[in-house]
Amino acid sequence: MLELKNISKVYKSKKRKSQALNGINVSFGDNGLVCVVGESGSGKTTLLNILGLLDSPTCGELFLDGTNVNELSEKEKDEFRSQKLGFIFQDLNLVESYTVRQNLQLVSERDDIETTHNELMEMLGVIELLDKFPKEISGGQRQRVAIARALIKGSKILLCDEPTGSLDSTNARKIFETLKEISKKKLVVVVSHDVETASKYADRIIEIENGKIKSDKLACEEREDRQELPQECNEHKAAMSPRRKAKQLFSIAIRYAKLKRVRFAFMSVTALLIFIMLSLLTAIASYNENSLVARTVNAQGADYFAVTKQFHGVYDATEYGISEFIGDVEMTELETKQLEKDFGTEADRVYAFNEGSLKNVHYDSNDPAITPSIPGFYSTGIHGSVELTNEFIEKYDYTLYGRLPQETNEVVLSEYAFKIFKFGGYESDVNGREVTPINTHDDLIGKEIRVGENGDYKKFTVVGILDTKLDYERYDFLGERIDDKLRFRYDEFKSVLEISPHTAVYVTENYAERAGLDKDVIKNVFIKPAKTVKGIKKQLALGDLKMRDSLPPPRADNETIDYCFYKLQNEIICAVRGVNSIFETVAKIVGIVAIVFAVILVLLILSYFSGVISDRIKDVGVLRTNGFSKWQICLLFIFEALILSAIIAVAAIIMSAITLCVGGYVFKSYYDLLFFPVRFSILQPLIIIGVQVVFATLGILIPLIRLMRKKPVEIINAGRQ
Ligand code: ADP
Ligand code: MG
Description:
Elements: E1 2-12, E2 17-28, E3 32-38, H1 44-51, E4 59-64, E5 67-68, H2 74-83, E6 85-88, H3 100-105, H4 113-116, H5 118-124, H6 139-152, E7 157-161, H7 169-182, E8 187-192, H8 195-201, E9 204-209, E10 212-218, H9 242-258, H10 261-285, H11 289-300, E11 305-317, E12 321-329, H12 333-343, E13 348-351, E14 356-358, E15 381-382, E16 384-387, H13 390-395, E17 399-402, E18 410-414, H14 415-424, E19 426-427, E20 435-436, H15 441-444, E21 448-452, E22 457-467, H16 472-475, H17 487-498, E23 504-507, H18 511-515, E24 522-527, H19 533-541, E25 559-569, H20 571-614, H21 617-625, H22 630-671, H23 683-708, H24 712-720
Parallel strand pairs: 3-8, 3-9, 6-7, 7-8, 16-23, 18-22
Antiparallel strand pairs: 1-2, 1-4, 4-5, 9-10, 11-12, 11-24, 11-25, 13-24, 14-15, 14-21, 17-22, 19-20, 21-22
Helix pairs in contact: 6-7, 9-22, 10-20, 10-22, 10-23, 11-19, 11-20, 17-20, 20-23, 21-24, 22-23
This protein binds adenosine-5'-diphosphate and magnesium ion.
């Protein structure tokens, strides 16, 4: 069944060549106990390793059941090892982190080894050891477990390298007796330097000297059987199913994952902290103004966008270089139609008529609320006129108190304008500037007011108050106190007041025609925000549209106007712009910090997971000798990497989400912002899972691939060191 033809083995190192085997010709039968004896260094182990397909000869041929082993693929050799060959070494027989039971299950097609292999284990006395770990049992017991494993596997050939080398003589004798029993049915090759014991049990003794066979003798003494080998040892076992092996590997991986908990805890806590930091940093770095605006507008149901047409120009002040500038232009009716086309929605015009301020607001200059340092809430600015209709009111869901203007000298004021009158009082133009307090809407309705520039104003009678839904709670105390925390909100409000429904006056329909005014002076328009975040983003993106037709004329020779664009504005956009400048700078710095953290994290993960392998080389050796293939072992460690990675990644994702939500909330409430500036998105889990899994696997694979390039015997030797 085993035949060696002219086998030689030469170990080549840089300095030396050493011939471990030199022209070995020998064959073995189907059973019997063959002892290979010889002095240390004579080549016994080398011979056994070649017999066991753990190592390949330099030259010569080995036939196993008539098959030339040289012609076998790596995979077929693994199969041979897993089915036909059983190994018993002096050491390194068992997976240390496995119980005896699990070590045995490793090679069994079924988990219930107690019933399926009871007789065999009874004979070997391992039944009571099943739940112990290798380090809890004696050397002799370990050897029995190894023998049991070889038999459970259904090995036809048992290869034993100094199996009794570390045992006392009583135990050594017992092991030999067992092997002797087994050799009735199977071929048992025992390598031993203990010639005396060996010759007592051997059927045949092969003596090796300097890599050559010195003698090959049959032993004469024939001993009586005392015990029969269990029947099951005669059966031919089929190869273990790949699924069973994968399951085995997965359970080893789980066991491995449970080892070194303290070390793992240290690593994972560090990784976790860095991951949280990275999530925060990436959330900030991926901050994007438009998507933040779109989300917030959508979430808060903002009811309008004020759109103005702006121009971008370049100013060449020869000595001081070139500077850019931006300004707004009034639109013609034609341009406004174009705007409606661009935005795909109807637009409500605000004409430049009556631009200026409300003239009849009385200010008590002794009022501490009206000091130059706190211009705050109370502004009388008016940016234009809207021709008010019921459709307009309905469209924006506004409420009108009083009635629509019907004459060209009638006006509806915004709720905000009413608040200003309420704050200061109404100062009439006649009767020596008599001041009337304004407390209710009715106090203001019927009053005569002037609107416009100082020298150029119009007189109106107030006929109604339109609530344009300004969030008064959010802004009206700005008149009283502005501390640093409210700075954002103050700036936000100042921008809102530039152009908004709150700072327009509302005049009668067809006001322009009836007053004989030219309508091509459209200051801005109001449009409804789209219903979806995506739609809003599209609207905002129109702000990047560069229009190069019909540019306004430059105001000076050294000015060039290069393009026009739409500027969208409302409370939320103003709020976002307020923090935007901060975030844009922060995002840049944070991006760099994130890269540094990411590098540290990657190194941490790589070093931890590559360290995992070096602790397991022994076990890899045991698995390899039991016929587990390279790929299966790679799978084992990838399982382990994935299990550990899953723990870290899940924790990191949860912690990051919590940190970002809490952090966002704290930031939001501290500055009383309308929105969360940072957000937990799909990006963070993707980064966490990606980095963790990729680098853990890479960390495992780098040393593993190097290890797998080695022959099984080299792995065993590496494990012994
Ligand atoms: P034995 O088991 O009889 O003690 P070995 O088969 O282990 O002997 O070794 C035979 C010879 O081959 C020795 O001279 C030893 O130094 C050499 N040898 C064994 N393994 C290696 C190896 N991996 N690299 C180089 N030389 C080796
Ligand atoms: Mg040896």
